[in-house]
């Protein structure tokens, strides 16, 4: 049978015969993930299950990245619980302190996830690894506890929407603009229960980090996974990060899709998701006089080195607007060090930005950049739900690192070409 | 995996807040949660339910948060089965994991009205509407998921496996 990427990867890890969409199959997990917010609940379920050991101490990742460095006593207690569990289970991939980064930027960089893997995480943005050709998706705490104990879980085989991206765009368009455009097109439930599979010349030309930015936001269209074929670039990327034996993986010719969406990027302007949903997407040119109080560059969506490079190039030699707090959070310690070595941090600091440690922080309204009532922020993150970054009366706009840098300087949302 | 009971029909896009509002999440006790089931829809909704009755939902049943309290509340209210047009993804998983039988039947949902008497064979995916004599099929519950259900949910299922 000709298979989509989703079907193919599921089949690779299942003894059941993967057939049509809707069917339920059991599959082995390559990596099981939880963070400082979700792991404590999973640990409770794990204990209730009477499990004594995790299925494989090298295939469980516990990443304390959300409220860290611990913002208060409660978060410190949660992290403590996760730390003690990791010690007890002898979990190899426990991250906290100087080695922690935002989970979905960290795992790929450490070579812990790669093409053809099945990754489940107690975090909805686990879908990020689809950018590497991994079937990766978020679940509830008890599901993750079971996967930690058994090393397997069940999946409903999803239908797949094929997204074909073609055309020529200018240098101001990034992968973030493409995914925002798609979400605006199909809506926040446009891919409900389905897999998104990306293809086309623009995707082949795109670097792996950009693909992860797009896969990251599959969930913002309700998608279960956002899958990219793993090509030579993916294999190089994964190999250089120490992932063992990465292999190229493509959908079969003749695979069945439930829908095809064609996007031509020619002439596209940078895309912005306006408050309060990721599908409220407008072209930057439509947004006039949106004054900003804060700009955030970071997160599992856009906190990677290529994002920092793009933003630094724009902001170099300029000053952050006096009314704006420009917060830059490199997503992992390695990215931080790279940015330091390349002089990017110095560019940001000279411009008047605040450079903070790798953490989710403001992305989920945790800490390090919370908004007051009436404040507006442009962020390179992935969700702009009401109150996501602080007060219920604050507003979050989502855009690319390039737009973020230009807007931090202008003090309002602008097209980077107008800077 | 045979069930019989009266159908209680609710609408499309029933979210987890309608099933069990956040103010009741201070417990994980099924009976207590069950006594407040659908308080987010209508005050005292649950009073109509007799143990063994069957919940019938519309499209996208269980959308919203990932709270596992939602399927627990439905079970706690005495309803072991939900039949719906379709389920939201995380609810679907959580439902089976908590030991709730979920059957998806698409547009055939029209063949069930509030108050109809139903008979369900979950293993076969066969639903019989005794009031109208309509026969409805869903995908049968796969064997291993039936196993999860037989053991009363994922926690017990895993407990048996690891012990
Ligand atoms: S950066 Fe934001 S979206 Fe990503 S894992 Fe952290 S809180 Fe979630």
Structural overview:
The complex is a heterodimer of chains A (419) and B (163). Chain A has 419 residues and is an alpha/beta fold. Chain A is 31% helix and 18% strand. In chain A, strand 3, helix 3 (73-89) and strand 4 (93-95) form a beta-alpha-beta unit. In chain A, helix 2 crosses helix 5 (141-150) and helix 11 (305-315) crosses helix 13. Chain A starts with a helix and ends in a 9-residue tail after the last helix. In chain A, 58% of the residues are buried. With 163 residues, chain B is an alpha/beta fold. Chain B has a single domain (2-162), classed as Alpha-Beta Barrel (Aconitase, domain 4). Chain B is 27% helix and 20% strand. Chain B is built from 6 helices and 7 strands; from the N terminus they run E-H-H-E-H-E-H-E-E-E-E-H-H. The two termini of chain B are 25 Å apart. The model of chain B has no long low-confidence stretch (mean pLDDT 89). The interface between A and B is medium-sized, with 27 and 25 residues.
Give the SSE layout.
The complex is a heterodimer of chains A (419) and B (163).
Chain A: H1 5-12, E1 24-28, E2 31-35, H2 39-48, E3 60-63, H3 73-89, E4 93-95, H4 103-109, E5 118-121, E6 135-138, H5 141-150, E7 152-156, E8 160-166, H6 175-186, E9 195-199, H7 201-205, H8 208-216, E10 225-227, H9 232-240, E11 259-264, E12 271-273, E13 281-283, E14 294-297, H10 299-302, H11 305-315, E15 325-328, H12 333-341, H13 344-351, E16 354-355, E17 376-379, E18 395-398, H14 401-410
Parallel strand pairs in A: 2-3, 2-5, 3-4, 5-6, 8-9, 8-11, 9-10, 14-15, 14-17, 15-16, 17-18
Antiparallel strand pairs in A: 1-7, 12-13
Chain B: E1 2-9, H1 16-19, H2 30-34, E2 54-57, H3 69-76, E3 81-84, H4 89-98, E4 101-104, E5 117-121, E6 126-129, E7 135-137, H5 143-150, H6 154-162
Parallel strand pairs in B: 1-2, 2-3, 3-4
Antiparallel strand pairs in B: 1-5, 5-6, 6-7
Iron/sulfur cluster is lined by residues 66, 102-104, 123, 125, 299-300, 360, 363-364, 381-382 of chain A.
